[in-house]
Amino acid sequence: MVFLRPLILLYSTSVRRRGPDTILRETNAKLTPSYILHDTPLCTAERGRAAKRIRGKLSITKKNYMPVTEPINKKNIAQQDFLPLQGTDYIEFYVGNAKQAAHFYKTAFGFQSLAYAGPETGMKDKVSYVLQQNKLIFVLTTPLRTGNAIADHIYKHGDGIKVLALKVDDATAAWKTTADRGAKEWLAPVKLNDESGEVVLSGIKTYGETVHVFVERKNYKGVFMPGYREWKTAYNPPTAGLQYVDHCVGNVGWNQMNPWVKFYEDVMGFRNILTFDDKDISTEYSALMSKVMSNGNGFVKFPINEPAEGKKKSQVEEYLDFYDGEGCQHVALATNNIVETVTDLRNRGVEFLKIPNSYYDDLLKRVGHIDEDLAPLQELGILVDRDEEGYLLQIFSKPVEDRPTLFFEIIQRKGAKSFGKGNFKALFEAIESEQEARGNL
After folding, report:
1. DSSP conformation letters of 247-259
2. 272 Cβ contact list (under 8 Å, min separation 6)
3. Where are the beta strands (DSSP E) in 144-196?
4. 225: CATH
5. Domain ends where: 77, 100, 117?
6. pTM
7. pLDDT (tens digit, 9 = 90+) per residue, 140-165?
8. CB distance 21 to 325 below 8 Å
9. Are residues 70 and 163 in the same domain?
C-alpha cells in the first residue's frame, strides 16, 4: 500500500535575516527534504540561485509553508525500535579555550578529569579535554588553528554543543539504518584501535550544525577511546551529585518543529510523547511551542522548541539570534538530591534564574504533598510540578556563555515522567526578566 507523506521544505530562522542558509534543492526532479540537506554550505551565488528556485516552487514565511509530497511505502515508517539506543554516551562542546572551559566545569559543576587528546597524543589540529561525573561525560574541544570547521563553528555560534553522542551496540548498523531512512551523513563508520581495544564511531546530521554520533564501545577497556590518554590532575574538586543526562532541548526556527519531529520519527524511530502549544508556554509578552521526542526505551529524550507569535521576542528567538542558527539550547542534568546539589552549585558560583516568592504561596495546594521542606526550595528557587506518575523538582541556570545561548537544567524526578508544564509561566517570566535586563525582550 502506497500513500503520500508531506515533505516539509522551509527556511531556518536565519533565512528571515540572511537568506536561504537551509539548503533546499532539486534532486532527480524531486525536492529533497530539508533535514537531509540541512547542514550543507552554500556560497553566496549558490544561495541566490537556490532562493530563485525555491520562490518558484513554494511560498515561505515564518507563518506558513506549502508541503511537497512523494510516495513512500508505509512499512518503512512502521513504529518499531529499529534503532536501539543505550543512552547518552557523551556531549561534545566546541569552545574557544578548552583548558579554561574544563577548569570551569570542574570548579563550578563538580566534574572530574578523565582523558586528554592533543599534539602530545598525535592529534595535531585540535585539543580535547574529557570530564566525567558519574554517568555524565563532557568533551571540550578547541582548534589549534583558524580556517577549519571547528574554528568556523566557534566564530559563528560562540561556545556551544556540537555533538550529542548516543551509545549503541552496533555503530555501523545504526549509521546504515538511519542513512537508509534519509539521514544526512556526518561521519561514515570508522574503527579506532589501541592496546585497550576498539571503538566504532559513525554520525549523522540533525538540526542546525548539531550532529548525533553513534558510539560502539563494547570492545574497549580504555579510559575514553583510542587517541586519548588518561588525564590526571592534582585539582579535582568534589562532585556535585550530578548523575546523568535527563534530556537535551533543541531550538529550531519558525515552522521547523514539525519537520524535525518527522525526522526523529522516520529516521530514528522516536515517538512524540508530549506536545505543548503556545497556550501552554506563554506569558503576556512571548510564547513558544514544543514537542518532546523519545526513543523506544525512553533512555534518550529530545524536546524540540520553536518560536510562536507574541508581543515581544521569545527566549527561542533570542537564542536563534545570538547563536546565529538552530542548536542545543540546554541540557537537563539529573540529581538524586536537588536541594544538596543546587546548594553546592550555588556555593561554587553557578547562577540560577530567580523565581518570584509569590510562586511558593500556594505551591502545596497545586502539587500536593512533597517530601521536601518548602523553605529551602523557596530559598534556592527550585520549581515543583506533578503528573499522574509522581512529581519532579527542577531549576534552570542562567546562560553559562557570554552570548545568551547555552544553559543547564538541574532536575530530580520522583516518579514524574513529564517536563514541568505547571512551571512554564513562572519560568518564562523569570527568563523574560533576564532578557529585559539584556535589552533583548
Report:
1. EEEEE--TT-HHH
2. 261, 265, 291, 292, 293
3. 160-167, 185-194
4. 3.10.180.10
5. 77
6. 0.81
7. 999 999 999 999 999 999 999 999 99
8. yes
9. no
